[in-house]
Design brief:
about 325 residues, mainly alpha, globular
């Protein structure tokens, strides 16, 4: 009882700090930059709806939709990473490493190559590609059960194979299709609109709700399959449902923005360290994931004057440094 009383303020404090930083990023993204006056009076005019039409369009149509996309997709990637790291019981077990986002991107490439750049077909292709890569990893990693290390190694191998296939496919399709695929591969929130993000956000909300509903069972799986089964949990069924939810979250996010690295890998681990627990928290992972992606997108928009970088370039640069740190740290344990 005393331990619970001690831990609760730490959880609240950590989440409150992250929420405060997220709010600062939201305000900075909406009201800082070109074409927008930054004094308090003009900002209040924008909030109250009394600003001129041009500034209202810039803030509420262009910037707000992009910001909302970063919020929803970042949360989805954070939860997806938390699900897979919990299932394989390894901090490297994220969709970035195990190849599920590469499989989703393969589905997008095939959709573009055969049917053209049709948005919902790309989403469907990403879902099928992500699920197909997950099935391959699940089958090849099975040896009288699944171990986290074996899933990661097989996932890396499948990811390398699919990456090679993606490169071959990009070289054999038409120039227009190859250029479209190249834009997807960078991972970007550029051109995000309410029309694109709202339907996808509804689908991601359903998948997030499914993941949160399975959160307690996920905790039991972390205790071991035998313990979870003794407590009345259907181990294989629960694992398959969680894998489907995690893969679908990654696939839908990839279909909207292209593959964005680092968020799924880092968000659950940062959340776990902030909460100082051994368990991976889905809610904190979602919050950290949203904060990381919105922060990376803010850097992408303002780090290079006169142009906006794809957010995937920023996240993969940060992710490379973090991955080296994580591997070296795990090697010392």
């Amino acid at each position: 009882m005393m331990l619970a009383r001690i831990k609760a303020p730490k959880l609240t404090t950590a989440n409150t700090i992250v929420c405060s930083l997220t709010l600062l990023i939201i305000l900075a993204t909406l009201f800082l930059g070109d074409h927008i006056a930054t004094n308090l009076h003009d900002i209040w005019q924008l909030i109250s709806g009394k600003a001129d039409h041009y500034q209202s369009v810039v803030v509420w149509q262009w910037r707000a939709s992009r910001l909302f996309g970063g919020l929803v997709i970042g949360a989805a990637l954070g939860v997806s990473g938390a699900v897979f790291q919990s299932l394989v019981r390894n901090p490297l077990g994220s969709p970035d490493i195990t190849g599920f986002n590469v499989g989703a991107f393969t589905g997008v490439l095939l959709s573009i190559a055969f049917f053209g750049n049709i948005y919902w077909l790309s989403v469907l292709g990403a879902l099928l590609g992500g699920i197909f890569s997950a099935i391959l990893v699940y089958i090849f990693a099975y040896r009288d059960g699944h171990s986290g290390f074996r899933l990661i190694i097989v996932g890396i191998a499948i990811s390398a194979t699919l990456t090679a296939f993606n490169q071959w496919l990009s070289l054999t399709v038409s120039l227009e299709t190859a250029m479209t695929a190249a834009l997807w591969s960078a991972g970007s929130l550029n051109g995000m609109t309410w029309f694109r993000i709202l339907p996808a956000a509804a689908l991601l909300a359903i998948l997030l709700a499914c993941s949160f509903l399975m959160g307690s069972r996920m905790r039991l799986l972390e205790m071991g399959d035998d313990t979870a089964a003794a407590l009345g949990i259907s181990v294989n069924k629960t694992r398959l449902i969680l894998m489907f939810a995690g893969v679908s979250l990654t696939a839908v996010a990839t279909a909207i923005t292209g593959p964005i690295a680092f968020i799924s890998l880092a968000a659950p681990q940062i959340a776990r360290r902030l909460e100082k627990t051994k368990h991976v928290s889905l809610s904190s992972s979602a919050l950290i994931g949203a904060f990381l992606l919105m922060s990376a997108d803010f850097i992408a928009q303002h780090s290079w004057h006169g142009s906006t970088l794809p957010v995937g370039l920023v996240t993969i640069s940060l992710g490379g440094v973090y991955l080296v740190y994580l591997i070296s740290r795990e090697g010392r344990l």
